[in-house]
């Protein structure tokens, strides 16, 4: 009897194939593994009883993965004729059931080890430069975890050498000492005590890749006044040392740690072995279950990453990465690249003309010039600005006093920063775009004010964005008494409609059959979900599958 187990695994990083090979080999069962596009098939041959036992073992041995979408099993007549080709691993996966059992079982030679596969592993605890502990046995590791947990529990910060570098860890109450930090939950069960999250986000946190996700802090935790941020980036332990330490801390009642690149710490844990660092994974999980990778290219296939090195322009690299992942080289497609980091572009690709830039973003040279351009746009706009200065003199004065950095990316996100400053949503240019986004995410209504997003040449497919009308419409709503949260949502929602209208125009006039969405602005899930809702009825949407959405 032959069973074929099919797995829809969208990454080509080799992890699934190698896990299946290891499981089948451990079970000493006749097998073959083949792959076609995103479908990995494991065929096994044995008697019915053995196959039943193997199916149970397979189910228990495969970890949850953000790249794993679905599975099925069926009886087939024969083994496939294709030769088995096992891809190389892009990285070594630590959090498999087999590995965790190895470090959690007292009878295992790797019990409590912070790094698997190292025979001569030495770990030390220092206070300033004085060595307090030096361990290299399971009993020693247990003592070390207990001591570090006790230090953190008593309010000390500890610098720990992890696989991805050295970071400072401490109780979340100590995070006020750090400029920037990430939150580490010591157990999956406590996540909802700090943040607002969905079930699919909880599952993603516990996956093989141990990603981080940006969350809104819930009202109950915010009332405690432990942190001032309304949004946090949170993950579970993504390192075996932190995995064991988290269990000790959870037992002591410590639910959340901060993790910072730089923060004061007088205690330090060092490891004798340097591991291959991975760029920490940051994802966004959408309501429909789609997972967007915001950071963490090390989890993608090596071949895919190598092919993109020839692109110097981030927007072109991002579009090309989607074309490669979705095999769009024979399709006519349009791409909307909106980034918080780089210059935005709206592009089009066809076999006949290649990749074309259609729309780019221009920025005014200053806030003074921005208001002046609004005044010059029409007589009514001149009166609008005069009225705005009278009604909001402090907002206007603060805005024109702010100097824009010369390296500000030419993007909608940068324009949002300018809108947020000009409309009094923020007085910090660097934080202004994030403030507008957080306001929009907090909006509880169904519909916001319609902000004017138009190209300078309205009927053209290739033109620059008209930022004057963006501010002019926002000023009108501000003068009409629209609150900051509603106004911010209007800027987000209206952009989604603008993109939808352009996509319709591209489909009608340029024969686009696919719409590629990329750039870090799509990492904000409310914006992405809004875009998907508007586009999905009429368009096939393509996001990156295994590469980050911004290159």
Using the CA coordinates, give the radius of gyration: 27 Å
Number of strands: 22
Beta content comes to 15-25%
Structural class: alpha+beta
Main β sheet profile: 12 strands, mixed
Shape: globular
Tell me what you see in this structure.
With 551 residues, the chain is α+β, with helices and mostly antiparallel strands. Helices cover 36% and strands 21% of the residues. It has helices at residues 15-26, 48-61, 97-104, 138-153, 199-205, 219-223, 240-251, 302-307, 314-326, 367-377, 379-391, 393-401, 412-422, 429-442, 467-479, 484-509, 525-535; strands at 2-9, 30-36, 39-45, 68-76, 123-127, 130-135, 158-162, 165-171, 182-185, 195-196, 212-217, 231-235, 256-260, 267-271, 282-285, 291-295, 333-337, 345-350, 354-360, 463-464, 514-518, 540-542. The strands form three sheets. Strands 5, 6, 7, 8, 9, 10, 11, 12, 13, 14, 15 and 16 form a twelve-stranded mixed beta sheet that branches. Strands 20-19-18-17-21-22 form a six-stranded mixed beta sheet, with helices on both faces. α17 links the parallel β21 and β22. The longest helix has 26 residues, at 484-509.
């Amino acid at each position: 009897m032959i069973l074929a187990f099919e797995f829809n695994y969208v990454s080509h990083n080799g992890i699934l194939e190698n896990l299946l090979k290891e499981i089948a080999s451990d079970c000493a069962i006749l097998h073959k593994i083949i792959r076609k596009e995103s479908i990995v098939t494991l065929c096994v041959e044995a008697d019915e009883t053995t196959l039943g036992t193997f199916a149970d073992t397979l189910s228990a041995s495969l970890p949850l993965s953000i790249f794993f979408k679905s599975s099925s099993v069926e009886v087939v007549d024969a083994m496939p004729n294709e030769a088995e080709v096992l891809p190389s691993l892009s990285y070594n996966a630590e959090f498999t059931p087999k590995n965790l059992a190895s470090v959690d079982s007292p009878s295992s030679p790797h019990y409590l080890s912070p790094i698997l596969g190292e025979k001569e592993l030495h770990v030390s605890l220092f206070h300033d430069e004085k060595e307090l502990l030096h361990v290299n046995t399971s009993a020693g590791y247990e003592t070390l975890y207990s001591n570090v947990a006790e230090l953190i529990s008593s309010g000390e910060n500890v610098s720990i050498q992890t696989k991805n570098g050295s970071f400072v860890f401490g109780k979340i109450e100590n995070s006020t000492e750090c400029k920037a930090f990430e939150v580490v939950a010591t157990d999956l069960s406590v996540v909802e005590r700090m943040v607002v999250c969905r079930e699919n986000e909880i599952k993603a946190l516990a996956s093989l890749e141990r990603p981080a996700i940006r969350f809104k802090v819930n009202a109950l935790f915010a009332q405690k006044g432990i942190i001032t941020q309304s949004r946090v980036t949170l993950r579970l332990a993504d390192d075996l040392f932190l995995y064991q330490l988290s269990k000790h801390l959870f037992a002591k009642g410590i639910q959340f740690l901060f993790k910072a690149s730089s923060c004061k710490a007088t205690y330090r844990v060092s490891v004798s072995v340097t591991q291959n660092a991975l760029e920490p994974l940051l994802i966004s999980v959408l309501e429909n279950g789609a997972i967007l990778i915001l950071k963490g290219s090390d989890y993608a296939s090596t071949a895919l990453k190598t092919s993109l090195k020839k692109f110097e322009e981030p927007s072109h690299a991002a579009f090309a990465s989607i074309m490669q992942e979705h095999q769009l080289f024979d399709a006519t497609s349009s791409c909307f690249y909106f980034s918080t980091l780089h210059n935005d572009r709206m592009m089009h690709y066809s076999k006949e003309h290649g990749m074309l830039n259609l729309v780019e973003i221009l920025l005014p040279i200053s806030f003074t010039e921005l208001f002046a351009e609004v005044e010059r746009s029409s007589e009514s706009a001149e009166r609008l600005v005069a009225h705005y200065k009278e009604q909001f003199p402090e907002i206007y004065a603060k805005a024109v006093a702010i100097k824009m950095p010369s390296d500000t990316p030419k993007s909608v996100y940068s324009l949002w920063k300018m809108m947020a400053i000009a409309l009094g949503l923020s007085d910090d240019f660097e934080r202004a775009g994030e403030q507008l986004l957080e306001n929009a995410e907090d909006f509880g209504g169904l519909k916001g004010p319609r902000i004017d997003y138009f190209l300078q040449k309205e009927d053209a497919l290739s033109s620059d964005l008209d930022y004057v009308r963006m501010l002019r419409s926002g000023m009108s709503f501000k003068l009409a008494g629209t609150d900051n949260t509603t106004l911010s949502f209007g800027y987000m929602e209206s952009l989604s409609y603008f993109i939808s209208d352009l996509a319709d125009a591209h489909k009608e006039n340029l024969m686009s059959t696919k719409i590629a969405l990329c750039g870090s602005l799509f990492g904000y899930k409310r914006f992405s979900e809004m875009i998907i809702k508007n586009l999905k009825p009429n368009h096939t949407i393509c996001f990156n599958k295994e590469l980050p959405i911004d290159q």
